C-alpha cells in the first residue's frame, strides 16, 4: 500500500493528502514526529520533514512540491497543474506563493509559534510574532479574496493544486481558530467549495492532542 | 527578445540564467532593484521578487522554480529535470533542498546579512547570524561533497537543474569570498565542471557595485 508520512496540521502534508485524494489514489497515513529526529526517517528524507510519499514500488518522494509534480507526471488523468502553458505557469506561481510567501509570512508566525514551538521544546509563543502573523494573514486573505472574486478557481477556470495549496494552509489555521471568515466572505465562499470535495473529508476528521478545533472547522456550511 | 528581470547576486536569478543558457535560449538581462518596490514590477510579479522571465509573446513566468518547470515543459530538448521518473524525483528533491534548506540555513544568513540588509536599509550584518551561516555552510558542503563523490552529477548520471541550483547558490557566496574550497575538494572538483559550462560565463563576468570578488571567482582552474 502507498504510504504518506505526515503530520496532521502540516499544510505541506495536507496538500499531499488533498492531491492524492483528488486523484483517487488510495494511501495510508503514518504520523512522523519529526522533532524526534528518527534516523530511519532521515534515511527516507535527508531534509527530515514531512510529507514523504512511499510508493508500493519502494520509490520515495519527499516534499509537497516534489509530490505534486510527481503525481502529475505519473497520474495525469485528473490534471491539477493546469492544461495550457499559461495555466501551468499560473498554478505553479500560486504553489510557489503559498509554499514560500504564505508559509513564511503567515504559517510560520501562527502555526509555527502556537504548535511547532511547543513540539520542538522551544518555549512559548511570542506576542510580537503572532501579531505580525495576523497582520500578514489579513493581507493574504485580501489577495485570495481578489483571486476568488475574479476567477472561478484561484488559478483560473479549473480547480487546481493552487486551490489545494491555499486550502491546506487555511485549513490548518482554521483548526486553530485563527480565521475570521466573517471578514473574508469571498474567501469563505471559495473555501466552502474546496472543503466540500470528497478529498477534504480526511482533513476534517483529524484529531490533534491538546487542540480542539472550533465547531465550524468540520462544518461544510459554516 | 526574451527578458529576464534579475539581480546579479540572487541565486534564484542565477539558476534561471544557467537554465536558459544551458538550453541555448537567448535572453536579455534587466536589473530589477526590488528594494525600490517598483509598481510596474509588482504588476509583473505580485510577489515582488526576482527572477521574472518575460517571453517575446508577453507570457510572464515569475520565480526560479516556476521558470525551471516552464522551460522543461516548453523547451524539453536539453532535459534538465531528469529522464526517468526516479531521476525526476531526485532532481526536484535537490531543487527543493537548495531552494528551501540551503536558502534558509546558509544564503539568508550570509548573502542576506552582507548584501540584502544593506540594500534594504536594514543595518549592519549580525555576527551571530553570520556565524550560524558559516556553520550551516560546512554541513551543506559536506552533503554536496557526499553527493559529488558518489554520483557523476549531484542528482545522478546526468547534469541537471540540481547542479545548477547548487552552483547558483555557491557562486553567489563565492563572489563574496565565503567559500573555502581547500576544505571541500570534492565540491571544488564538481563545481569546476559546472563552472566550465558555456552557460556559466555570464555569471563569471558579473559586476556588483561595492563588492570585488576574490581573484579565483572567475578562474576556471581555481
TrEMBL record, chains A, B:
InterPro entries xref list: Glutathione-S-Trfase_C-like, Glutathione-S-Trfase_C_sf, Glutathione_S-Trfase, Glutathione_S-Trfase_N, Thioredoxin-like_sf
Domain GST N-terminal stretches: 1-79
GST C-terminal domain mapped to chain residues: 84-214
Gene3D superfamilies per the UniProt record, alphabetical: 1.20.1050.10, Glutaredoxin (3.40.30.10)
Pfam family, one: GST_N_3
Transmembrane segments: none
UniProt subunit comment: Homodimer.
Protein name: Glutathione S-transferase
